[in-house]
Amino acid sequence: MIKINPLLLAAVGMVSAVAYAAPELTVTSIGQEIESENTSNGADLDEVTLYNRVGLAYGDWTFGLEAGKRWAINFDDTKDVHSINHRLQIDVWKKINEDLKLGFRYRGQREYDRYYARWDWNHGLLWSAGDVWYEANNESGVVGISAADYIKGEVYPIGFKYGTFKVGYFVEFHELVGSKEAEQKENYLEQQIRAYWTFYKGEKLTLSTEGRFTITADEDHNGKVAAGYRVYDDFGRNRLYIKANYAVNENLSVYGSYGYEMRDWKMEDGHKDDYTKKYWQDVIVGWSYKF
User: Fold this and answer.
1) Each residue's pLDDT tens digit in the chain (291 positions)?
2) Which residues lie closer than 8 Å to 104 by C-beta, 6 or more apart?
3) What is the DSSP letter of 99?
4) How far apart are CA 97 and CA 131, in angstroms?
5) What DSSP string describes 215-272?
6) Alpha-carbon distance 121 to 261, whole Å?
């Protein structure tokens, strides 16, 4: 008769139980999105980007993978359509507790690589979120493009939410890393108020809006810039989005948004206003399937 060691049997049982309880890497969502961004005085379609996305989860960890391709399109006599950029993006989030998530993002495009530290915090009526990243420039030697690296950030230090409405104080900053060259941008600081409101939620259709309102924008350079430069005037950049999401079924949603921005500039170092890029618009359509 074969004798089975009770301790061995117990150990096998414990390993099996742990293995069964361990989280698995699962695909949580897939989707695609097309975005068209245009500014006044630009090409017919300045930038058209196709994004392909996959979401994954592993216990308290979530992951996002994104691959994008960007084109410029003109409908004039040349019928010009050409690729102008690409994007590879990887997101990682870890749930720390009921209020806080911490994350990392890598974004690579033709002109830069970015390495982000991220957070998302919610507690009662208050919230905060932010991305701070190191931007490594990939275009050293290209005429008209600075080869400098920067520390940049887009941060909501504090926000307030109530029901389907929330508002946040927003700060964007750039800080030059490394040696300074003549006329080079050393830093940039923009302050905004951003507001979000879901004003309709039906059985399938959800409608929402978002507003972004610049308070101040300032930029410093290393010495006087020969041709001058321009930055947004105080209260001179205002953007509004209208967004819609339609739940086709429990898993599949289709969505779209339209954004419009009006801009007023202030001229620095004697820059001559060429009256370009006074307006900006953005159209997005996409779908998402959640498993």
Assistant:
1) 445 555 444 544 544 444 455 689 999 999 999 999 999 876 556 789 999 999 999 999 999 999 999 998 877 656 678 888 999 999 999 999 999 999 999 999 999 999 999 999 999 999 999 999 999 998 764 445 457 899 999 999 999 999 999 999 999 999 999 878 888 999 999 999 999 999 999 999 999 999 999 999 999 999 999 999 999 999 999 999 999 999 999 999 999 999 999 999 999 999 998 888 899 999 999 999 999
2) 91, 92, 115, 116, 117, 118
3) S
4) 19
5) EEEEEEESS--TT-EEEEEEEEEEEEEEEEEEESSSSEEEEEEEEEEEEEEEEETTPP
6) 28
Tokens 């993978």 found at: 65
- Residues composing the chain: 291
3-state secondary structure of 18: helix
List the one residue out of 69, 148, 147, 134 whose CA is nearest residue 105.
134
